[in-house]
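Look over this entry.
=====
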Amino acid sequence: MPKRSFWVLSKQPKEIGGFGKRPVPAQFKTAEEASKYCRELNLKRGAYHPGYFVEERIGNTPVSAPKKKAEDAGEEE
């Protein structure tokens, strides 16, 4: 079974790197650790940087991702 993890990601598209010694994207086991790290990054970000956010994932897919439904393809309303 895939494990649940929390990722701190950038709102800036395709940003990969670090802010000083803080890597982005970063993976955490608990939501509290991820939100603390995200808060620290947002406090130190530049004036024109859009910011950072926390995303919960199970395996490689985000929790908010749409789920595939095979039954919906055959139904008509």
About this structure: The first strand starts at residue 4 and ends at 10. The beta strands are 4-10, 17-19, 22-24, 26-28, 52-58, 61-62.
